[in-house]
Amino acid sequence: MGPAAALRRIAYLLEREGAETYKVRAFRQAAIAVDELGPGRLELLASSGRLKDIPSIGDTTARVIAEALAGSTPSYLAQLEAVEPTPLSPDALRLRGKLRGDCHGHSEWSDGGSSIREMAEAAVGLGHEYLAITDHSPRLSVARGLTAERLRGQLEEVVALNEDLAPFRILTGIEVDILEDGSLDQDEELLASLDVVVASVHSKLRMEAPQMTRRMVIAVQNPHSDILGHCTGRLVTGKGRQPSSFDAEVVFGACARTGTALEVNSRPERRDPPEGLLKLAIDLGCWVSIDTDAHAPGQLEWLGYGCEQAVQAGVQAGSVVNSWPADRLLEWTANHDTALQPRRGMTP
Q1: Same domain, 207 and 288
Q2: Of 9, 44, 171, 185, which is least packed with CB atoms within 10 Å of its CB?
Q3: Do residue 73 and residue 98 come from a single domain?
Q4: Are residues 212 and 146 in the same domain?
Q5: Residue 47: pLDDT band by 50, 70, 90 thresholds?
Q6: Closest C-alpha among 265, 286, 176 to residue 225
């Protein structure tokens, strides 16, 4: 493995284990610096002990480069490769094997750490058939949410990338903010043109339950809403964050009536919704979308965590929309055909 490939693989493995963004970025930037320098110059600097003269190269990345140039596996890379991901139960493994793609992912266009191409190529490597790029909408300025103009620019990039990466498909999308009145934070015309719309609450999470219920139901009833993202907004690691309060039976009932899927968010710090709410959603006849909400390529491997959460709640593969091929998924997002809604006890 060459130096740049080793640096990128380290970044990927750090992403998979949820390392801090600054740490991952150091290895990705070092890989870019190596690419720009070229092999001849890189070897010259390595032989003279001057690798740290290269911008973005520090002690650790210099050691990785030197070991890779010497023809050995860098010790830091070997250490990361030796860390096994959390094993999945047999049922979760079976469900994971039936998933064809991921309907919630972010790129550097908003608060993700990598390009759309890098995200897509990582998805290809995992055997995905498709990946929806769902960067944030404009109201979430802290995440560099996309204005209508920027979103249109992203759509042009996706068209070009899909020509290069076929038969793999990048699905156009957005994670659109559910505003306080239940409206969606993007132009209606643009929302109508997208493949996948994930609607999520990101603000005023402590709203009183009746108001939050109304807010979420209005959003779910919007014909452009395909998936209700991380519905409780809870965080279960670090200082944590309590789930929002709402009438789950009313909200999930609206999801079932409109054919809007409930997301099982696979991020380790979210694991949203909790098991009891997910069981309720299944009992009410909701579709489910098991997604990573990945903000970096390595995080695309987190689908297994969502599968584990799903099987514990009794989710069957037949009710999971991203177990479908892309064409069927896109037919569903275009029509939300209530005749295709899952029935209670549905089997794969």
Answers
A1: yes
A2: 44
A3: no
A4: yes
A5: very high
A6: 176
Could you read off the pLDDT of 145-179 as tens digits, one per residue? Answer: 999 999 999 999 999 999 999 999 999 999 999 99
CA distance 310 to 302: 13
- Which strands, in side-by-side order, build the sheet including 261-265? 101-105, 130-133, 169-177, 196-200, 227-228, 261-265, 288-291
| pLDDT for position 93 | 97
Is 347 part of a structural domain of the chain?
no
| Distant-in-sequence, close-in-space partners of 34: CB < 8 Å, separation ≥ 6 | 3, 4, 7, 42, 54, 65
Among 23, 55, 81, residue at a domain's last position: 81
Whole domain around residue 239: which residue ranges?
90-340
- Which amino acid is located at 251 in the chain? V
Can you give the length of the chain in residues? 348
| Pairwise CA distance, residues 117 & 89, whole Å | 32
Res. 206: pLDDT tops 60? yes
Domain count, the chain: 2
Lowest mean pLDDT among 81-95, 108-122, 184-198, 325-339: 325-339
Residues 6+ apart with CB under 8 A from 257: 338
What is the average pLDDT score of the chain?
Answer: 94
| Helix, strand, coil tally for the chain in percent (to 5) | 50, 10, 40
Task: Assign residue 8 the CATH number of its domain.
Answer: 1.10.150.110
Q: Establish whether the linkage from the previous residue to 273 is cis, with ω within 30° of 0.
A: yes
Helix (H) or strand (E) holding 200: strand 196-200
Q: Is the CB of residue 296 less than 8 Å from the CB of residue 112?
A: yes
Tell which residue, 315, 313, 305, has the closest CA to residue 346: 315
